Automatic annotation (TrEMBL):
Region ranges (Disordered): 186-234
Biased composition, class Basic residues, residue ranges: 223-234
Organism, as annotated: Streptomyces broussonetiae
Annotated protein name in UniProt: DUF4255 domain-containing protein
Domain Pvc16 N-terminal positions: 4-179
Origin: domain of life: Bacteria
InterPro entries per UniProt: Pvc16_N (IPR025351)
Length: 234
């Protein structure tokens, strides 16, 4: 799930024209050694904090449908995690860094969720909203100064971004459907001593149960409608 959020952010930031203008978008830790090796204008999106939002933890299990609308598995509810990123801009002059950071802020400030077109893998499959909060005052994460101290670098202008994304629950395959009626045998024996042949009961309401009382094809259950994603889409 984490790498899928990374790619979603990369796609969203790409809309600002950064990569088209030759600016690299990386997810490295901006350490002192990394900064010394940098040779091109760069926007660094560093993930430094991961926490579960326990207030959104659910219970029970949901049904998973195949392309024909049949139940093929049951899945426990997803668990939600808050991913906090530190975004910095790197260039030869502070003015250029501020311009790059301004482009990033303008792009992220217009979205309160990752656009559906940038969701891949499990995030796309779950069909749930992946919320995004840029430079929010309520970011519950280590202070930027503590992060820079841990990285061994000097304090730099940065943008805090929090993404709340679901981690898919565990799936368990559903049992195969019942395809034939109950077989009933009598305790009575035939004259040759063999047990009396059984009789297979037919399902009620089946117009053509088939040979020996077999049931008609299983009824298809319609797949539930996908939940509409909330939030504005840029």
């Amino acid at each position: 799930m984490i790498h899928e959020v990374d790619e979603g952010l990369r796609g969203l930031l790409g809309e600002s024209g950064l990569e088209a203008s030759g600016v690299e978008i990386v997810f490295d830790a901006p350490t002192r050694d990394w900064a010394a090796r940098r040779t091109a204008p760069t926007v660094c999106v560093f993930l430094y904090d991961i926490r579960e939002d326990t207030s959104r933890r659910g219970s029970g299990a949901g049904e998973v449908y195949d392309a024909d609308g049949y139940v093929v598995a049951r899945r426990t509810p997803p668990r939600w995690f808050e991913l906090t990123y530190l975004i910095t801009a790197w260039a030869s002059r502070p003015q250029d860094e501020h311009r790059l950071l301004s482009q990033v802020l303008a792009t992220l400030a217009t979205a309160d969720a990752l656009p559906e077109r940038y969701l891949t893998g499990s995030l796309h499959e779950l069909g749930l909203t992946v919320s995004l909060d840029a430079a929010g005052a309520t970011l519950d994460a280590p202070a930027a100064s503590d992060v820079w101290s841990a990285l061994g670098g000097e304090l730099k202008a940065s943008l805090g971004v929090r993404v709340c994304a679901p981690l898919a629950g565990a799936s368990r395959a559903a049992a195969p459907p019942v395809t034939e009626g109950l077989l009933v045998r009598s305790a009575h024996q035939q004259e040759d001593g063999d047990p009396a042949p059984g009789r297979r009961l037919r399902y009620e309401g089946v117009s053509d149960p088939g040979p020996e009382g077999f049931a008609a094809p299983r009824e298809r259950r319609p797949a539930p409608a996908r939940r509409r994603r909330g939030g504005r889409q840029p």
